[in-house]
């Protein structure tokens, strides 16, 4: 069947066919995204309902993805995201950080404190970019570090953007260990705190991960994975009064990053 796009053969060139490899590639990625949207695991009937593809097509594509290691079949005959995607995701996260680094540099130039970008990956916060402050203080966080989200500003900003049921399930899987005496360790208390974060538009890490350090974090709306931008520094400089000035700047940079993601060619 001729392609319904601009090249339909009317300009003298052969028409493209919907049955070509590009369509198969697109459909394969759609199935992978359907699995991700389903929480990482789904049955064939669920994939058919979510994708709108015919069952024979899904069978063929899933068999190919399983053979390549991007999808696996569990013992319950449901399909899940494969471990080969882990390496791709890690490298993609780092590239995201490289791409966002100039915006973090803007934060440092304007505020003088360390700026970070983190994503939520496999129940953990992963720092994918950092621009250090002009001051000599060494920060606990660094690119590549993985932490549980309940004890970080960026983690709480991301959790506050997720459905409550998803947050409960994540906390059940990870637990809530205390990093300092200020870390939230009760799920219900944290959930109430997350509602406040969603209302005010930014999260604070009040020495919950590292004593003496305060962090202001804002979620990046519309990012392909949960992501947040933050500014961190010693409590002596990031006072409560300073936070009131810092939060709008961090929110602006997060919005700029979100807008750039939306206009990126797909």
Automatic annotation (TrEMBL):
Residues 84-263 form the IclR-ED domain. GO terms for molecular function: DNA binding; DNA-binding transcription factor activity. InterPro entries: GAF-like_dom_sf (IPR029016), HTH_MetabolicPath_Reg (IPR050707), Tscrpt_reg_IclR_C (IPR014757), Tscrpt_reg_IclR_N (IPR005471), WH-like_DNA-bd_sf (IPR036388), WH_DNA-bd_sf (IPR036390). The keyword DNA-binding applies. One of its GO terms (biological process) is glycerol metabolic process. It comes from the Bacteria. SUPFAM superfamilies: GAF domain-like (SSF55781), Winged helix' DNA-binding domain (SSF46785). Keywords: DNA-binding, Glycerol metabolism, Transcription, Transcription regulation. The keyword Transcription regulation applies. Residues 22-83 form the HTH iclR-type domain. Coiled coil: none annotated. Transmembrane segments: none annotated. This is Glycerol operon regulatory protein. The lineage of its organism: Bacteria, Bacillati, Actinomycetota, Actinomycetes, Pseudonocardiales.
